[in-house]
Design brief:
With 432 residues, this protein is of the alpha/beta class. Helix content is 45%, strand content 12%. It has 17 helices and 9 strands. Helix 7 links the parallel strand 2 and strand 3. Keywords: 4Fe-4S, Flavoprotein, FMN, Iron, Iron-sulfur, Metal-binding, NAD, Quinone, Translocase. It catalyses: a quinone + NADH + 5 H(+)(in) = a quinol + NAD(+) + 4 H(+)(out).
């Protein structure tokens, strides 16, 4: 691989076309050809094709999509639902909203194909409530698709019916967790559910449900048109396909960059014009603030599901947040922890109480009033939250703290030293 080997755009190929969001532009650029092809196959054949392609969930967990689809029971005693997680609340993540703004029909076509494969007649797109412009654009795209016969009754004369509902959430980070999203969609308070039962058995309205991320479903039409082998030519063996990396922070050109899975930060930085003002890199996150941070030593870690885990983090949503040497790690960790404390739903004690105390200690340390014991207390609280909270929010909340202390313990100690020096001064003054 050369230093930068960008793929021919797949997911983003229409983004720069004039009026890329309109059905006219979409149809000119192969739009809805995959749907026609899919409707000539059986639902089982489509599920098998998605399995063969190796497509994995782009929402953070990386679960094989075809396998997830195959969990839907074949019986029809209850309706089947497809729910699209378009909540995108992870700090630093900005891939799904730009995708829906620039190319909403790729998501809608993917929804129709996926719903057909899972024998679902209703699909819900749960969008973050703050992004009104995005909600309007999706509603417009749904109306266009319906008018053109790609949605509604008897789609393209196939006898298959599908309704898509765009639902605006109320802006809660917890609703990005799939079962909290389902509760919110049913009109209840967004809180995670106990699993099992898993959504595939009892999800929305206690009926079989599959929850998928926007980018995952938008990849489906390309797999149907290009084939599983073509899709596997991009990315790595275990993490195939293209990926939208959202790069923010201290880079010259922040934004969305499509690259094969397994691309490294060194390559992404080259695409993004390098570090802003030439100030060196200090630390970065591979997949948003809930993934353990990396340092300049990790520039060549392949950013795919396996590579990130092997290096001690997780791929998450590929929200690459880049920080230069001017940023204090304890300060950044404190700001992230304030976010998690604010967004905790309060359902379970480890997360509700843990995030509260983590914020108290970090704020005290950053203000210069910390002690060395505080570092041990922080790690002890993190240990009590990790793996013990009701959902993954607790695990995400402790990631910045544990990784921050792992790589930059000296910065936390320096804050404690500042406090000791401050407390020594009056004693010396009194001795004179």
């Amino acid at each position: 691989m050369s230093t930068v080997d960008p793929v021919t755009p797949v997911l983003t190929k229409r983004w720069l076309s004039p009026r890329s969001w309109s059905i006219q532009t979409y149809e000119q650029l192969e739009g809805y050809t995959a749907l026609r092809k899919a409707l000539t196959a059986t639902p089982e054949q489509i599920v098998q094709m998605v399995k063969d392609s190796g497509l994995r969930g782009r929402g953070g967990a990386g679960f094989p999509s075809g396998l997830k689809w195959s969990f839907m029971p074949p019986n029809f005693d209850k309706p089947h639902y497809l729910v699209i997680n378009a909540d995108e609340g992870e700090p630093g993540t900005c891939k799904d909203i730009p995708l829906m703004m620039a190319d909403p029909h790729s998501l809608i076509e993917g929804c129709v194909i996926a719903s057909y494969a899972m024998r679902a007649n209703y699909c819900f797109i749960y969008v973050r409530g703050e992004v009104l412009h995005c909600i309007r654009r999706l509603n417009q795209a749904v109306a266009e698709a319906k008018a053109a016969g790609y949605l509604g009754k008897d789609i393209l004369g196939s006898g298959y019916d599908l309704e898509i509902v765009v639902h605006a959430g109320a802006g809660a980070y917890i609703c990005g967790e799939e079962t909290a999203l389902l509760d919110s969609l049913e009109g209840r308070r967004g809180q995670p559910r106990l699993k099992p039962p898993f959504p595939a058995a009892a999800g929305l309205y206690a009926a079989p449900t599959t929850v998928n991320n926007v980018e995952t479903i938008a990849s489906v039409p390309y797999i149907i048109n290009g084939g599983a082998e073509w899709f596997r030519k991009m990315g790595t063996e275990k993490s195939p396909g293209p990926k939208i990396y959202s790069i923010s922070g201290h880079v010259e050109r922040p934004g969305q960059y499509e690259a094969p899975l397994g691309t490294t930060l060194r390559q992404l930085l080259e695409m993004a014009g390098g570090m802003k003002d030439g100030i060196p890199l200090k630390f970065w996150t591979p997949g948003g603030s809930s993934t353990p941070m990396f340092t300049a030593e990790h520039l060549d870690v392949p950013l795919d599901f396996e590579g990130a885990v092997e290096a001690g983090s997780i791929l998450g949503t590929t929200a690459v947040m880049v920080f230069n040497e001017t940023v204090s790690v304890p300060w950044a960790v404190m700001k992230w922890t304030q976010f998690y404390k604010h967004e905790s739903c309060g359902k379970c004690t480890p997360c509700r109480e843990g995030t509260y105390w983590l914020v108290q200690i970090l704020e005290r340390m950053v203000a210069g009033n910390g002690t060395e014991e505080d570092i041990d207390t922080l790690l002890d609280i993190c240990d009590n939250v990790l793996g013990r909270s009701f959902c993954a929010l607790g695990d995400g909340a402790v990631s910045p703290i544990t990784s921050g202390i792992q790589y930059f313990r000296d910065e936390f100690l320096a804050l404690c030293e500042k406090n000791r020096a401050k407390n020594r001064k009056p004693a010396l003054a009194g001795a004179n």
